[in-house]
Design brief:
Layout: H1 13-33, H2 39-49, H3 56-63, H4 67-79, E1 83-88, E2 91-99, H5 101-121, H6 127-143
Antiparallel strand pairs: 1-2
Helix pairs in contact: 1-5, 2-5, 3-4
């Protein structure tokens, strides 16, 4: 690392996205608390809605989390009626998860909440800047293997 970069660390994309990500995550977490959820609950619902493999073990791999976390998240979502666990007819040892109608409605509430936070976060940007940011984040997210939908 002999290359000298004249710009400070705080000007790097990594630093800015990481720091802004922390701020945005805190705001999203606070907003979701009103619904009795945390961001990982929403992540599980998004994975199920997007067609991810519905077994708890496969979801853990997809979400890159411990299987025990998926069980805990699913327990909470099942308790509030957002998802059902059913035995896989092809393999009775396996439980698969499915969003209920209430879960889809809850996910719609989370989506609306996220869009409100988006509007607050990007209020100082004009339309083309917002669209450029959305597109750039989509490209970066896709490269990182995150689910993308436009």
């Amino acid at each position: 690392m002999n290359d000298v970069n004249p710009s400070p660390l705080t000007a790097s994309v990594v630093f800015r996205l990481g720091t802004l990500g922390s701020v945005v995550t805190a705001r999203f977490t606070e907003a979701l608390a009103v619904l009795g959820l945390k961001p990982k609950h929403v992540g599980l619902m998004v994975a199920l809605e997007s067609g991810a493999p519905p077994s708890q073990l496969e979801l853990a791999r997809t979400m890159a989390v411990a299987p025990s976390l998926v069980v805990s998240l699913a327990d909470h979502l099942e308790q509030i009626g957002a998802l059902d666990r059913v035995r896989d007819p092809a393999d009775r040892r396996r439980q698969v998860l499915a969003l209920t109608d209430a879960g889809r409605a809850l996910l719609a509430d989370c989506t609306a909440l996220a869009h409100r936070l988006d509007a607050e976060l990007t209020a100082s940007l004009d339309g083309p800047e917002r669209e450029a940011l959305r597109r750039a984040l989509g490209v970066l997210g896709a490269e990182a293997g995150l689910p993308t939908q436009d």
